[in-house]
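Two folds, back to back.
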Amino acid sequence: MAEPIFQEPTKQVKGVGDLAKWKKSQAYSDYMGFVRMMNNAVKSKTLTDSCNISETCHKLIKMIDIIDEWAKEIPPLEQPQRFGNMAFRTWHTKLKEGSIDIVLNLSSRLMSLAAHESMSMACACRHYINLKVYVAFPSHIDCAPKVMSPLQYLPNATSYRDCFNYQLEMNAETLIKDVLPDSCKDASLELKAYVTEGFGNYTRIDYGTGHEMNYAAFLCCLFKLRVLTEADSVAVVHHVFNRYLKFMRYLQMRYRMEPAGSQGVWGLDDFQFLPYIWGSSQLLAHEKLSPKDFVNSDVKTGPFAEHSNQLWNISGVPHWTKVNSGLIKMYDNEVLGKFPVVQHFHFGNLMSIKPA
């Protein structure tokens, strides 16, 4: 069988008219299938329920632990502007430099698959997702991220922006060619795009549902590559994504990141969406908590209907089943159906713009 061919992911949704192409694409089908698969996996389960945490899941958590340490080592700068601390760009440069080595920590080889073979995920998630799968059997290597200071590349640079722009122009594949296993090399070319885009925007120093989507797409790709399997589903939500969520809250506060495309009180949340979907799934069989109970939240001051209008509307739905299905529809329409979000998404072979 032929080796799968991977490519540098590129932006394909360049106008509102391209949204129809996106909604018919293999990438959209795979991504929504992933969201639904995770949603089903955590139904009526709590974060404290025991579950299998594979070596791959541990490596994904460790990946975030590593970049968390980077953030702790890079303090916010003293600056006049209230939002968007410029130190975030230093941290993001480190992420950009180390992304391929981080990805390589997850798997040492990918098995070949016929280039155009389409398989259902019957062995992994029958009834819930239908991905075009690249079959792989994961083994692992120890390959700690090798991070260099940006100023080592440009000693005379006047700012970290200069270093970052230079890094973008460098051929990252050439730099790490000697350490990449042949069978994994091309896949990391696509995976790194979703890793580097999943933690906020370097230039705008903001974060929103589009960046969250990129990290989720990274996890989706690992399922397609069979680096993650159905047995990992609960751990992916309860441990991997939960660790990602906690880190993003820390990153947002540390560098005063602005919400990307915030709708203010008319939006569900300034930064995230997926935790609401999967969280409502966790509550499906809860005997005490109902949607209306969240109106009593003490997170913000003032009338709940004013500062969290969408959540207040949702609290009027009597059952979690309706809330959960409604949130999935809302996510499809308000996030995946919006040009300002999807225009920044990259498409390659793993997340293909080709029709499903």
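---
second:
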Amino acid sequence: MADTTNNLSSSSVELIKDQSRFDKVVQDAGNHLVVVHFAASWAEQCQQMGEVLNELSKDPKFSHVTFITVDAESLAEVSYKYEIVAAPTFIFLKAGNKIDRLDGANAAELTAKVTKHSLILVEDLTKSTAKQDLNERLKQLINSAPVMLFMKGSPALPKCGFSRQITQILNEQGIKYSAFDILEDDDVRQGKYATKFKQQGILQKNSANTRYQVLVETKGLKSFSNWPTYPQLYIKGELIGGLDVVKEMVESGELKDLAPKEEDLNTRLKKLINQSPVVLFMKGSPSTPRCGFSKTIVGILDEVGVPYTTLDILSDDEVRQGLKVYSNWPTYPQVYVKGELIGGLDVIKEMKESGELASVVLKSEQA
């Protein structure tokens, strides 16, 4: 019998065929949005909505969204879990939890829901979770951009004179930076919180139920950096200092020397395609590809036994858009050998079938 699930396949939306893969995709997405299309191969509306989903997946503003298709009949347990009674049905997930659903074929409403739920709020990026250690979170924040400024307010609306001055200096120096408003997050600013039991601190009796609670106090970023005031400027994860230090470094010329230099995009792309003999630009990583084409091409390269380097174009929109123009190749994945574009999945398949791929790979290893 022919495999009718092929009717559900898409150029950039992965077709999930087993529950373990479904669970892994949802887990790997973390707090980012996952849009699950429960479809049936015999339903024409599913194919039409699949095309809509395919186009949404190509939109740069949804690069952080994971779009997948599930054969509702083949994965009965998953369909049962999400109460799927008809196809198409769309389930919207974040952190493994269902946040919304759409029953039926409505392209406009699907687009509206994807747009609504894909928004990355500041609070999503900055709120700590119960499981996340504050110091680990602070490490992630100070390393979230090459130049990171912790300030009161935002660069557009600073809420203290010191913060206003330091943003003006960075702008005048032409230094690209990201900013974090410490007034929006008291954990980062002050770090005060309470936990129960088995932690060293001040025991306080609760007269209501005679249980005890340990009150724990930390100092947030001030303690982490051993710097008592704001604003604080970090470069490559290292504390530079506050306003006075930054002013002194501007006068000496040290700040501009220390700040990362912005490369011309073409220069950066040239370095990336030459970083190893074989470079694959794909969606996701070899262990967690984010589209069917990327997954297939990884399988081919692994089968041939070629060592290769990868870059996830979903994590860098500048590279994702720029490389299409640089290489004059409109789609991903893209394979480069010794800095030269070989092509995408169709080309690699043909080269493998003709035996040419192994020959090209061998030459790259000998060079």
